[in-house]
Please model this.
Amino acid sequence: MKKSRFTESQIVAILREAEAGVTVAEIARKHGISKNTYFNWKSRYAGATVSDLKRLKELEAENAKLKRRYSELALENTAIKDLLQRKP
Model:
């Protein structure tokens, strides 16, 4: 996935400008983004604060780590079961 030129905190700041009454066309021109990009950001980050986004990233990283651990343990469990079935 292509990395954005803007950080999440910058995106939230841009969205707040629109909440303050600046038109979408002016925001798009000022920051060099398309209207579609603005509306995509709005659907993804609407109502979020910077601290919410940081917490979300932390939770996603923790979730990924737990998924890796689970897959490793499931693989070990399957290998042990195969060994136990072959023994007798």
